[in-house]
Design the sequence.
């Protein structure tokens, strides 16, 4: 067995970093707060309640019912003849 390994690595790195940072911060804060609060509250409540309730209820009910029923039934059964020829055919000729 014959193993022949030939590795050739050539790395060339050239890094050139040039950083120029110029920061100029000028902060001028001028705060002037002038608060003038003038609260004047004048509450005047005058409540006058006068309730006068006068209730007069007068109920006069007069009911007069007069019922007069007159039923006259007159049933007269005279002169009614009932014949049954199918029961007595020999008495009633056709």
Sequence:
């Amino acid at each position: 067995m014959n193993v022949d390994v030939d590795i050739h690595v050539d790395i060339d790195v050239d890094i050139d970093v040039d950083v120029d940072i110029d920061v100029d911060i000028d902060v001028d804060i001028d705060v002037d707060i002038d608060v003038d609060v003038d609260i004047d509250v004048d509450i005047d409540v005058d409540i006058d309640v006068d309730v006068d309730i006068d209730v007069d209820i007068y109920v006069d009910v007069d009911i007069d019912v007069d019922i007069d029923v007159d039923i006259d039934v007159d049933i007269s059964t005279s002169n009614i003849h009932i014949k049954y020829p199918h029961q007595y055919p020999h008495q009633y000729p056709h």
